[in-house]
Amino acid sequence: MSYLDEIAALNRILPAVRARTVTPSDVADLADGPCVALNLDVDGNVAMILAGDTAAVTFYLAAGVLHPLAARRIMLTNTDAGLVITAVFGAAIT
Q1: Range of 16's domain?
Q2: Residue 41 domain-assigned?
Q3: Which tens digit of pLDDT belongs to each residue from 33-49?
Q4: In-domain check, residue 94
Q5: What pTM did the predictor assign?
Q6: How far is CA 46 from CA 50, 77, 80, in A?
């Protein structure tokens, strides 16, 4: 089973254990590792690098929804300014 398969399997049975407000950056990954979901305060575009990727993709996300995206980096470039982005993290894999 791959690392990403393990994350997916664990997150189906384990609840979120912490959440952090994210400051988008084109160079720094999320300090707590890949998240399991993202939430926004208002609808908007969020550019990110997913846990298993090396290139950024941009999604238009609705506010108030936990979007199940395993992002390792939230990009400054192509992310709408002024969004409050919250990354939700699952239990650590040991």
Answers
A1: 3-89
A2: yes
A3: 999 999 999 999 999 99
A4: no
A5: 0.82
A6: 12, 9, 7
79 beta partners: none
Instruction: Please state the domain count of the chain.
Output: 1
Instruction: Decide if 4 contacts 90 (C-beta within 8 A).
Output: no
Indicate whether 22 belongs to any domain.
yes
Q: Which amino acid is at 71?
A: A
Q: What gap in Å lies between CA 24 and CA 85, rounded to an integer?
A: 9
Q: CA neighbours within 13 Å on the CB side: how many for 53?
A: 14
Q: Is 56 within a domain?
A: yes
β-pair type (71-74, 37-40) = unpaired
Q: Name the burial class of residue 71, with classes exposed (0-12), middle (13-18) and buried (19+) by CB atoms within 10 angstroms of its CB.
A: buried
